[in-house]
Amino acid sequence: MDGAMTRYRTADVAVDGGMLRVGVWDGPDANAPAVLLVHGVTASHLSWPLVADRLPEARVIAPDLRGRGRSNDVGGRAGLTAHARDLVAVLDALDVGSAVVVGHSMGAFVALVFADLHPGRVERLVLVDGGLPLDLPDGLSSDEVIQLVLGPTAERLSMRFASVGDYLDFWRRHPAFARDWSPALEAYLAYDLVGVEPDLHPSTSYATVAEDSVDQNTGTAISDALAAMRRPTLLLTAERGLLDQVPPLYSGERLPALLRTHPRLRHEAVADVNHYTIVLSARGADAVAAAIRGELAAADR
């Protein structure tokens, strides 16, 4: 990750309700193509350094979405349309006209809505283990949706930790990272904490997660964006789920029907990764970065 971090800086961008923290990995010159990376529901921009490290030819931009990371005190409503509006503000502040846009998990849904509402700002679109409707029972409350989709990942938002080490130990027990513990992962997890020892807690706002989850799973923004999909879009899927389990988020039984419904989607499966390690492991970052380089080349034609 050393190469990425020598290019790395942060910026604060004004949005409705406050300041959005944005990570930037500068490209080799002013003409470098831009890549906009959008993280998952309880993540931050530091889920992306392994991918950014593999894209030295690009200017890589990754915000902390409102309610997360160092954007956790941004006020006002959340939801996919609000996040899409924030992404416009980020590109405007950094003087970027358009970018290859990549979203992971909930970030894929945000990226999809962003591409629908602001098509001129998107060169190419990559959805990473997200963006298509999840297979959920009807009639769930917001808390039930969060519990079913995220489980212990969401439960930690109300927990307190005496030290960063305690928080890392909490995650070491998570099956998703049994094979992929790394300094990059530790930095990502440590960044998640706010407060003062011995009263540390995750930065992500549960209220914002709830608002986003309800919008994602019961609102119309996703169905509208999928119905109006304007450009060929690449979907990358992990072979295992949030707990490193099979079936994954998008099972082999369900995925073909989804792809037939949305013919502009091109699908690539990423082997030997789960929903987290598709971006938070060397194997996953290799695959995601290779896909992005392909999209950069296509956008340059």
Q: Could you tell me the number of beta strands?
A: 10
> Roughly what percent helix?
25-40%
CATH class: Alpha Beta
The major beta sheet can be summarized as: 8 strands, mixed
- In CATH, what is the homologous superfamily? Alpha/Beta hydrolase fold, catalytic domain
Distance between the termini: 30 Å
Shape: globular
| CATH fold field value | Rossmann fold
CATH architecture: 3-Layer(aba) Sandwich
Uncertain runs are: none
Q: Helix-strand pattern, N to C?
A: HEEEHEHEHEHHHHEEHHEHEH
Mean pLDDT: 93
* Number of helical regions: 12
Strand order across the biggest sheet?
Answer: 1-2-4-3-5-6-9-10
Q: What's the structural domain tally?
A: 1
Beta-strand residue percentage? 15-25%
Indicate the structural class.
Answer: alpha/beta
- CA-based gyration radius: 18 Å
Question: Would you write up a description of this structure?
Answer:
With 301 residues, this protein is α/β, with parallel strands linked by helices. The chain has a single domain (2-134, 205-299), classed as Alpha/Beta hydrolase fold, catalytic domain (Rossmann fold, 3-Layer(aba) Sandwich). It has twelve helices and ten strands. The chain has helices spanning 2-6, 49-53, 80-93, 106-117, 142-150, 152-155, 164-172, 183-191, 206-218, 221-227, 255-261, 282-299, and strands spanning 8-15, 18-25, 34-38, 59-63, 99-104, 122-128, 193-196, 199-202, 233-238, 265-270. The protein has an eight-stranded mixed β-sheet, sandwiched between helices. A two-stranded antiparallel sheet has the order 7-8. α3 (80-93) packs across α4 (106-117) and α4 (106-117) crosses α10 (221-227). The longest helix has 18 residues, at 282-299. The chain is globular. The mean pLDDT is 93.
